[in-house]
Amino acid sequence: MRDSFSTFHPFVNFLYFVVVLLFSMVFMHPIFQVIALISAVVYSFMLKGKKAVRFNLLYMVPFLLFMAIMNPVFNHQGVTILFYLNNGNPITKESILYGVAAACMFVTVIIWFSCYNVVMTSDKFIYIFGKILPALSLIFSMVLRFVPRYLAQIKVISNAQKCIGRDVTQGNLLARARNGITILSIMTTWALENAIETADSMKSRGYGLPGRTSFSIFRLDARDKVALLIMTGLIAMVAIGAAMGENTMRYYPSIKASAITPFSILVYIAYFALCMIPVLINMVEAMKWKSIESKN
Amino acid sequence: MSTKQVTGRRLSRRTLLAGLLIFVVIPATILLGIFVLDDRKYYFISLLIVLYTMIPFAMVFENRKPQARELIVIAVLAAIAVAGRAAFFMLPQFKPVVAIVIIAGVSLGAEAGFLVGAVAGFVSNFFFGQGPWTPWQMFCFGIIGFLAGIFFKKGLLKKTKLSLCIFGGLATLLVYGGIINIGSLMMFTSEFSWSALMTTYVSAFWFDMVHAISTVVFLFFIANPMIEKLDRIKTKYGLIEP
To answer: Which UniProt keywords apply (chain A) (predicted)?
Structure first.
């Protein structure tokens, strides 16, 4: 399935991920955590399908359990003592629950990052930071290009070396290692010489002059503005809720969460909507597509 | 990133901003963590501090309006480091990244060393997956390159195999291992305690050791030829020593 959230302006994508990552790291209230975790999981399924199911089940669930166990072993705060370990340290209910919450937070962040890796491609990143950090983002884009290029060039060099019997697959172990180092050395010389040529070419084409353009052109159109407006509204709502203490959660010495009130329910809904924006956008797009399709 | 508009007219203003960042923003963040966030968000706060420490480097570099040749040599070294990390993906911790970063610091200066390290850490995670560990890796690689550059300038580090290998092994074991383990502790427990930190150091010791040994091995084999090549390029094309 095509992800229509990815087709939005990079700034919308980036703002979304910064905000959800930030909120996921800061909010420890169980309802906020569950909202973030569910949204992250749903969006990762939407983006990556079966691969996400495997990733989440195979790595994230054991990881969550492992971390939930690790915390009470090292942390003995809390008033509700369940039992004592062999070395005399108590295991408390609070530290177990805190371990679960911390693990949940970390897993959510990892799943958000797995979505980030799909949506925020490197050209979008460079588009956003090209204005703020022009030199560094140029280095980023060059390195991204150089890596596959060098790996291809190593093959070329190694094939040439094979013709004269000096590849890493030829000779005894010592000779192989020596050949490998020779190939890397040839590669480095080539890379540096080639780089200077690239630099001179860039200079003669006017690198560093004003009016630089990007490889990918993104336009902030009406759709992006609406999305930004909605996101800003929801962020403000959640931030007000956070400032009013709706997300307060205390684990030690005893567990105390802020109570559920009509206002807090409103904040939960705002947070849920914020986290679900890409999923909602995808669903609306899918419905639009179906309705257009069925008319014809 | 509100400091982006400061063009490098005067050095003092830049230094002032870096000072502001270190003496005002970082303590303010720590206080925010203690009072507003109830001293429970160690990971979040430490992440912010790690990001702050990298901002002055980025600012200084951008304000200098670097030449294309300088940019591209940094990019080449970072790309070699990333390709090296990719080439040895099947051997955990056995990576040439730190070795290349140290070589960059020694032959191109502390600033270039930091940038090669930070960029290599950042870009390699485009291939391996970004995550909350990215800023920590960037910072650790970067700071090793920076230290290598400074030590070389002060004469504590020589362009000899022995000197580079000793520095590389110690830097990987103590600086990289020392910082990255704090980072992973913050990620895994979000609850700081000294015993947990000690456990992390002990359990990670052999990983750090393998990493340090790999750095020494790579430095032993590639340091001299790489430095020679870089020096040759510098002389041939008249790249200015930073």
So the answer is: Membrane, Transmembrane, Transmembrane helix
pLDDT at A56: 78
- Interface check A216 vs B, CB under 8 A: no
Tell me the per-residue pLDDT of B95-105, one tens digit each, with 9 for 90 and over.
889 999 999 99
Q: Tell me: the pLDDT tens digits for A198-237?
A: 888 888 888 877 777 777 778 889 999 999 999 999 999 9
Chain A CB contacts of B61 under 8 Å are 135-136
Q: Which of A70, A122, A199 sits opposite B69 (nearest CB)?
A: A199
Do A192 and A50 belong together in one domain? no
Tell me if ipTM is over 0.90.
Answer: no
Check if B191 contacts A (Cβ < 8 Å): yes
A184 touches B at CB < 8 Å: yes
* Assigned domain for A228 exists: yes
How does DSSP assign chain A, residue by residue?
Answer: ---SGGGS-HHHHHHHHHHHHHHHHH---HHHHHHHHHHHHHHHHHHHTHHHHHHIIIIIHHHHHHHHHHHHHH---SS-EEEE-TTS-EEEHHHHHHHHHHHHHHHHHHHHHHHHHHHS-HHHHHHHHHHHSHHHHHHHHHHHHHHHHHHHHHHHHHHHHHHTT-STTSSSHHHHHHHHHHHHHHHHHHHHHHHHHHHHHHHHTTTTSS----SS-----HHHHHHHHHHHHHHHHHHHHHHTTTT-EE-SSS-EEPPP-HHHHHHHHHHHHHHHHHHHHHHHHHHHHHHHHHH-
Chain B residues touching A85 at Cβ < 8 A: none
Q: Is the pLDDT of residue B175 over 50?
A: yes
Mean pLDDT is highest, among A155-164, B35-44, B47-56, for A155-164
Per-residue pLDDT averaged across B158-184, rounded? 88
The domain in which residue A18 lies consists of: 5-124+219-295
Q: Do A136 and B61 touch (CB under 8 A)?
A: yes
CATH of region B66-237: 1.10.1760.20
Note whether B178 contacts A: Cβ–Cβ < 8 A.
no
Assess if residue A74 is contained within a domain: yes
A119 and A227 co-located in one domain: yes
Q: In this complex, do A135 and B132 lie within 8 Å of one another by their Cβ atoms?
A: no
Window A:252-291, CB contacts with B under 8 Å: none
What is the domain count for chain A?
Answer: 2
